[in-house]
Amino acid sequence: MIGEGNKAPVATLQAGGETIDLAAPGRPLVLYFYPKDDTSGCTREAQDFTALADGFAAAGVKVVGVSRDPQKSHDKFTAKYELKVPLASDEDGRVSDAFGTWTQKSMYGRKYMGMERATYLLGADGTVLKAWRKVKVPGHAAEVLEAARKLVR
Questions:
Q1: Residue 11: in which H helix or E strand, if any?
Q2: Which region is the signal sequence (predicted)?
Q3: Do the bridges between strand 29-33 and strand 62-67 make them parallel or antiparallel, or are there none, so unpaired?
């Protein structure tokens, strides 16, 4: 599990037409991991980050959503809700495994593996400046923006 002060794992993601090197992104980066495109909580979270996209840009911070959905699903989701935040596909699970967000969950007594909603604020050098685990969606994007404004210089 990656925590504050740790370096991000050596991995890359494709998002918004660019390759992002997580170990050295070159600029501050918010990675928010979410379970599934076009579900109620995930839609609300994507819309909240989209609503604050200009604020993140003004702070010099790139925001990328990450799930195990294929890119085709991300493209539909982005178009349907006019999202301004790029979404990256982690179909093989390497990135979510490295960050510890692919975890065992339980619903109605049934155990299964799934994506834990989590967010990481990375510095330009790939150091984790702030980590949020087991995220609750309401107010979360605003909390991340506030932290980014304080921690990113």
A1: none
A2: none
A3: parallel
Closest CA to 119 of 152, 139, 144, 102: 144
For residues 153 and 150, what is the distance between their CA atoms, to the nearest angstrom?
8
State how far the Cα of 133 lies from the Cα of 37, in Å rounded to an integer.
Answer: 19
Q: The whole model's pTM is what?
A: 0.93
Q: One of 15, 20, 29, 42 is an active-site residue; which one?
A: 42
Fold of 12-151: Glutaredoxin (3.40.30)
Task: Kindly state the helix (H) or strand (E) to which residue 128 belongs, with its residue range.
Answer: strand 128-132
Active site residue 85: no
Structure tokens at 81: 């809700």
Could you report the per-residue pLDDT of 13-52, keeping only the tens digit for each? 988 888 999 999 999 999 999 999 999 999 999 999 999 9
Residue type (1 letter), 119 = T
- Non-local (6+) Cβ contacts of 128 within 8 A are 2, 3, 4, 5, 6, 7, 8, 120, 121, 122
User: Across the beta sheet with 29-33, what order do the strands follow?
Assistant: 87-89, 62-67, 29-33, 118-122, 128-132
